Amino acid sequence: MIDIRQGRHPVIETQLPIGEQYVPNDVLLDSEHQQIMIITGPNMAGKSALLRQTALIVLLAQAGSFVPAESARIGLVDKIFTRVGASDNISLGESTFMVEMTEAANILNNVTPRSLVLFDELGRGTSTYDGISIAWAIVEHLHEQPRARARTLFATHYHELNEMEKIFKRIRNYNVAVQEQNGRVIFIRKLQRGGSEHSFGIHVAEIAGMPPSIVKRAGVVLRELEADNSQVGTNTRPSAKKLEQSREGVQLSFYQLNDPVLQQIRDEILGLDINNLTPMDALNRLNDIKRIVSPNGA
User: Fold this and answer.
1) Band of the pLDDT at 167, cuts 50, 70, 90?
2) Are residues 233 and 108 both part of a single domain?
3) pTM score
4) What CATH number corresponds to the domain at position 48?
5) What is the mean pLDDT of residues 263-272?
6) Where are the alpha helices (DSSP H) in 172-259?
7) Domain range for 280
8) 57 lies in a domain?
9) How far, in Å, CA of 140 to CA of 155, rounded?
10) Percent of the chain whose pLDDT exceeds 70
């Protein structure tokens, strides 16, 4: 069993601004009822910190040290395996995804029922459907294979993995809480029961200083994709036609218009010989185009 009550990250806690308190969390893992915790939640909510603090508390306890927690009951742990962070290995020609898979393979080939396994965003280096499939298969292996039945924390943005709780008896869904008020996201950083439906990645992009036009457009595209309700395991794909239709105000294509007036404007522009056009001719032609749009000169 690993039963940590009000655990904290010893490094992050010391670096907090004066007066700011670290938000502690409980983590319970055992081999009978809650072997695997699938943790979803927004970017910046604290999923990675939770994984790291659990590893540090377990390591300190195994060494006989005090631990940063209200209380902790830590059973024997023979190995701590982590697949955290994203990096490539250019010198060996290994992509980010290759590094992910190499490290994941090492974990699965060496894990024991007494191990602690921490996966953070496994599968993000490849396409969504490939990533979900691989993540699902790995979690299933850790649950079903007696020799690999390790206590596991699995942080992910693949909300489809929340379905595993309904199928496997020792998998439980958790999420790191947030509150959404007037379009703004407030990070609570508290672990709570149940899966999360949103990642709030667009909100994080806005905080990072992304141009407002891009943030706004991303919101439109997100709503279109969610409306399509694409599901894993089906042939449904986001509708490119809908995304094209939602581009009004972002980019207007003269080659996809049925309005006769706009077609006339297109023909006028395509008929211009830019290389032989004098400034006065350009002004006259622009005035002609303006008359097409507004025949009365308004």
Assistant:
1) very high
2) no
3) 0.71
4) 3.40.50.300
5) 78
6) 201-207, 212-228, 240-245
7) 254-293
8) yes
9) 15
10) 82
